[in-house]
Specification:
Helix content: 55-70%
Distance between the termini: 31 Å
Number of strands: 4
Order of helices and strands: HEHEHHEEH
Number of helices: 5
Strand order of the largest sheet: 2-1-3-4
């Protein structure tokens, strides 16, 4: 800071104070949105858990059960549904999930369905095979859109267009922890828990296969909506943390600049006194 005038230091202090006000306001907005996003996460989680339980019950209680959703087609590409944010200033929220998807896409012939502006711009810049660009704003995607996406994906999977389908999103662990995650949607991965099947089989009107084929797209839509809610909560939590860190950094810089300003002013006063004494 040697050679810098007190006026320049004062201008820098005012600039940092303005930046601090902006980051503080963004932190408060993110905290407000986070509360709503957490409520959506809590309300969305039970839905697809119940559907998954019904799917497992159908498989366990039918010994000769078979469905195209349980077997991967021999041909087709791997589809990744990638959920990212619409804006930056959220730490590593966007970059972490996008890097994870790129690493997985390198392993097979893949296509991608991006949700959110950051995901769409990222894959466009890398000339990836994009299935649809109909969802450039993640905040505008509603539960009905998730079920529409799920039905289209299920139809394409049954026709052999895709051999596997996964959704990549950011899991909301806590306000201070958000981890990128990937969940396989199709083919359905059923893990036997070792329990014996129920002695009395559940009777489904229309047949268990028909009910199963009708439930799977609904389950996928619930998973997509749950992943979207998780990502929204994780984004706001990451942005709140990033803005809190930026506010703290701004305060540290203001304190450092204030100290240098006082030193520069004291040096200027000392210089003037020295010149007066020398002149006298």
């Amino acid at each position: 800071m040697a050679g810098v005038s007190t006026k320049e230091i004062k201008n820098r202090i005012r600039s940092m104070e303005s930046t601090k006000q902006i980051t503080k306001a963004m932190e408060m907005v993110a905290a407000s949105k986070l509360r709503r996003a957490q409520a959506q996460v809590d309300s969305a989680r039970p839905y697809f858990k119940i559907l998954l339980s019904v799917i497992h019950d159908i498989i366990k209680t039918n010994t000769d059960f078979d469905s195209p959703y349980l077997n991967a087609p021999k041909t087709g590409k791997t589809l990744f549904v990638v959920i990212a944010g619409d804006r930056g200033l959220a730490g590593g929220y966007n970059s972490n999930v996008l890097k994870m998807v790129m690493a997985e896409m390198a392993k097979s012939d893949s296509v991608v369905l991006p949700i959110g502006k950051k995901a769409l711009d990222f894959f466009r810049a890398r000339k990836a095979d994009i299935v649809s660009d109909a969802y450039p704003v993640a905040e505008a995607v509603q539960v009905g859109d998730c079920f529409t996406i799920a039905k289209n994906i299920a139809k394409a999977f049954k026709s052999g267009e895709y051999c596997s389908v996964s959704v990549a999103y950011t899991n909301f662990v806590s306000v201070l922890s958000q981890t990128p995650d990937m969940k396989a949607l199709l083919p359905l991965q059923y893990e036997d828990d070792g329990e014996e099947a129920k002695k009395s089989e559940i009777l489904y009107e229309g047949g268990s296969v028909e009910v199963f084929d009708a439930i799977v797209p609904e389950y996928m839509g619930g998973v997509l909506y749950g992943a979207l809610c998780e990502s929204r909560a994780a984004e706001q939590a990451a942005r709140r943390t990033a803005m809190d860190s930026a506010t703290s950094n701004a305060e540290d810089m203001i304190a450092d600049l204030s100290l240098k300003f006082n030193r520069a002013r004291q040096a200027a006063i000392t210089q003037e006194i020295t010149e007066i004494v020398a002149g006298a």
